[in-house]
Amino acid sequence: MWRSEVVLEGAFLDQTKREALVFLLGIEHEIGKLDEPLNRKALQQVIDQTIQRDQLDLLNFSIYALYIFNADGQILAHSKPGKYPLKQIDGTKAAVFQQGEISLGEEVEYARDPVTGIEIPKADIIIPLHHNGKVIAAVEVEINLEATIKRIQQFDDRYERELVTVFAICFIILLLFLWWEIHRLLIHPIQSLGAVTEKIAAGELSSREEQLGRDELGDLGRSVNRMADSIEQLFTEQEEAYLQMLQSLAKALEAKDAYTATHSGRVSKFSVQLGRRLGLDKDELKLLKQGALMHDLGKIGIAEQILNKPAPLDDAEYEEMQRHPTLTANIMRPLKRFKEFAEIAAWHHERWDGNGYPDGLKGEQIPLLARIVAIADTWDAMTGDRVYRKGMTPEKALSIIESEFDSGQWDPELVRVFVAMMRGDLEARHEVEEDMFGESPA
């Protein structure tokens, strides 16, 4: 920026000096018309007329002094009348007379104004005056460069602002480009790896890093994928073993309480039917089926005399029976990838109005699958035979449920879909269709 300013300032000064040269050549032309070129009176008249011209306002400089002198250094005419000492004819002035050269002044000089005391920047421009092929005198103009310096400063200020603006824009573009490159090559892959590891930590063991480059981050991504494969295999083996244990536990419960086993099978099938009506996908239906099958598994911890009591339970026994959802949820909790199992087990006795147990969840705080199983569980409890009573007919059960649509026990929308399903499908009432997973109804 500094170097370019120096070059531009030099160009401005050179332009001003050349403009002054043209100005002096005009004076030379006027003097050339004189009959007596060295007549002091005639020369002074040319100087005075030149100083008084209106065209001077159009110049990019002002005249500090304008005068004519001869080879002896005598001032023949001057823009500022007065007595002046002989000028020393040497250096550039000598070259003007001896070689007829034009002097444009090499450096900016400063002269103190006798009136204001302010230093004024100026430059001296000298041209020779010829007569009959000889140099007979010289015209020198001392130009006031204040206007030129002001123009240079104005241009410099604008130039600096524009240059700084351009540099700033380029710098911002460079920063944005660098940020984009760093984000593409480093930050985004790291974020992607972080997201994958967070999903794995949350139990989504099938998550894998897809952006595998040939650099260190790509190697790290492949390591994360191998780790995820190992973890998924380990968890799968553990879950399979745990599910087998649950199946053994279910058989033990069946031996202890045959009703609970058959009840769970029916609840599972009715739950899947309602899930289909609600548009659940295959994976959700599978979770719903298995969760419903195991929703009462905690009854293994309830005393057998309570489970098989041939009469309604008293308050203490009923309170003990209410522990089974929590017991079931505790049994299911190790199956972290199938948290829906624990949710169904824990909350299938919660009510839409918040008056259920064990946690008093309300409305949509209760997971969808638990709300579905709650309806199927109630339906089978009403229509199934118990040791101490015979189940009611489907028609009577439907009438009771319809009268309690908005009682707060069930999700109002789900229970209406369930009743419509049961009323509109006789086969669904009397013969449960083959299970969607290829198992025949129990």
UniProtKB/TrEMBL annotation:
Q: Which UniProt keywords apply?
A: Membrane, Transmembrane, Transmembrane helix
| Residue ranges of domain HAMP in the record | 184-236
Entry keyword annotation includes Transmembrane helix:
yes
* Domain of life per record: Bacteria
Q: Please list every transmembrane segment annotated in the UniProt record, as residue ranges.
A: 163-180
List, alphabetically, the CDD domains matched.
Answer: HAMP, HDc, PDC1_HK_sensor
Listed under GO biological process in this entry are:
signal transduction
Query: This chain belongs to which protein, by name?
Result: HD domain-containing protein
Q: Name one GO cellular component term.
A: membrane
Q: Which InterPro entries match?
A: HAMP_dom, HD/PDEase_dom, HD_GYP_dom, Sensor-like_sf
Which GO molecular function entries does the Swiss-Prot or TrEMBL record give? phosphoric diester hydrolase activity
| PROSITE patterns in UniProt | HAMP, HD_GYP
- Describe the location of the HD-GYP domain by residue ranges: 238-434
The species this protein was found in: Candidatus Reidiella endopervernicosa
Q: Which Pfam families match?
A: HAMP (PF00672), HD_5 (PF13487)
